[in-house]
Design brief:
The protein has 221 residues and is α+β, with helices and mostly antiparallel strands. It has a single domain, classed as Galactose-binding domain-like (Jelly Rolls, Sandwich), CATH 2.60.120.260. It contains four helices and 14 strands. The strands form four sheets. Strands 1, 6, 9, 12 and 14 form a five-stranded antiparallel beta sheet that branches. Strands 2-5-13-7-8 form a five-stranded antiparallel beta sheet. A two-stranded antiparallel ribbon has the order 3-4. The structure holds calcium ion (CA) (2 copies). The site of one calcium ion has 10 residues, from strand 4 and strand 14.
Amino acid sequence: MKHGILLTLIILTLPLCGIVGLHAEVGIALEAELANEIVEPMIIAEDKNASDGKFIWMEGAAATGGGGKGYAEFIINIPQPDTYALWGQVIAWDGNSDSFWVTWQPADPDEDAQVTQNTEFRWGVAQGAAWHWDRINHWLNGGTFDREWKFKEAGETVLRIGVREDATMIDTIFVTNNLKANEGDLRLPTDKDRKIQVEGLAVDAKGKAATTWGALKRAYR
Ligand SMILES: [Ca+2]
Ligand SMILES: [Ca+2]
């Protein structure tokens, strides 16, 4: 009888573990200046108050127009299929320096928003002259709404932050599958995060997973 109860408990608990496993909380902290590709006039600049002392922007003066060229691209290995939100640590001085274009493939199409001017991909950045977090939104003509991206598979994704208005600054990015996260749930990149971003340890982990699957396949033959 006791064994029966134990077995029942195990049977009931196992699927629960699976569910918990699938919904593990993901948090990936990235330095903007460590992007895989930075295309001018988006450039790296220095600021002692920025995370690791650097940020990226298209250089420009406050209260003036300009922009629309240059971008930074990040290859982000997401560990599980899920719906994700993005946050950026930013500075936006004024109404002439408070937006980017953002696409994250493959959830978003392979579209050059700087060419199409598609407002689905227009991020209206929260203004402030000191570094602050802002959840990436889309600033549609009918209002501004938080964005979320659904990925059907784990693996490499490509995030592009394109210049829309010059002088808009971005320091760090935080990737999370907690769609209800607030600022207290976010973090700046640590030395370990930067090492992973530079050396691609996430790719190694992926390689290990592939090896494990290969070993499993052999075991079943
Ligand atoms: Ca500007
Ligand atoms: Ca930084």
